[in-house]
Write a structure and sequence with these properties.
Elements lengths: L3 E8 L12 H11 L3 E9 L10 H9 L2 E11 L6 E10 L3 E8 L11 E9 L2 E9 L4 H17 L3 E7 L7 H7 L3 E2 L20 E5 L4 E8 L10 E7 L1
Parallel strand pairs: 1-2, 7-8
Antiparallel strand pairs: 1-12, 2-4, 3-4, 5-6, 6-7, 8-10, 9-10, 11-12
């Protein structure tokens, strides 16, 4: 049986929109506007600071959507006192059951501006097990190269169909893009520029969905439902498995 799945990758900028106000309701409205099944999100706070009212943003979105969820920290700050553990990183929301998760902080590399991580999650869709990766890479060229190589090594280890979602901070046909495309298929291939950043007048494609090469991609394009929700546009793809 052929199954259609709508994927979404979205850098939510901890919910801060172009009006500089944090509003998770806008983020959930963008997700609902496309009826996404699986969503990878970047720049997510978990009890992180006053900027997002110390809330668990992943759980808030999952509760609003009535989805399963998992959070993968890239930054963890342990403090004495009432705030406890503060975290920031990537997350995945899923209409389908999550049956495995593992987070890989890139702590083997020097930190430049902010730490990054790779979130690995297996989801069961009917009888199929699909491995999803969510990541957000550095701007720094050397760090970006090493992070890309590490992610590719994890994809190669997987025995399952793979989907890779995230903000790659790279341009199409760059060295990193070619390395990833040797293993997986860019969902956007042959579909024009489809820029995602900045959200109001996008000039760059920084956000990507890669899938196993045997996966059929039916459509892929940015979501323009509410360009003010974040500094990035969400990017969606519909696949058949």
């Amino acid at each position: 049986m052929v199954i259609k799945i709508r994927l979404l990758t979205f850098n939510i900028h901890h919910g801060k929109g172009l009006d500089r106000k944090v509003n998770l309701q806008r983020i959930s409205h963008v997700i609902k506007s496309v009826n996404a099944d699986v969503i990878g999100i970047n720049e997510v706070d978990k009890n992180f600071s006053n900027r997002s009212n110390y809330v668990d943003q992943t759980q808030c979105l999952a509760d609003e959507l009535q989805f399963h969820c998992v959070f993968g920290p890239a930054i963890t700050i342990t403090e004495k006192g009432k705030q406890g553990i503060r975290q920031y990183g990537n997350a995945l929301l899923s209409r389908f059951p999550i049956i495995h998760t593992q987070n890989y902080p890139f702590d083997f590399l020097p930190s430049v501006i902010e730490d990054r991580a790779l979130l690995e999650t297996d989801i069961k869709i009917d009888s199929k097990r699909i491995r999803f990766f969510v990541t957000h890479l550095s701007f720094a060229p050397f760090i970006h190269k090493k992070q890309t190589e590490y992610i590719i090594s994890k994809v190669k280890e997987s025995k399952h169909m793979s989907v890779l979602l995230g903000d790659w901070n790279m341009r199409p046909h760059s060295k990193s893009w070619r390395k990833v495309s040797a293993q997986l298929k860019d969902a956007n291939a042959g579909r024009g520029s489809n820029y995602t950043f900045p959200s109001r007048r996008p000039k760059l494609r920084l956000d990507y969905i890669f899938v196993s090469k045997d996966v059929n991609v039916l459509e892929a394009h940015p979501v323009t439902f509410d360009v003010s929700a974040s500094d990035h546009l969400a990017y969606q793809a519909v696949i058949e498995i």
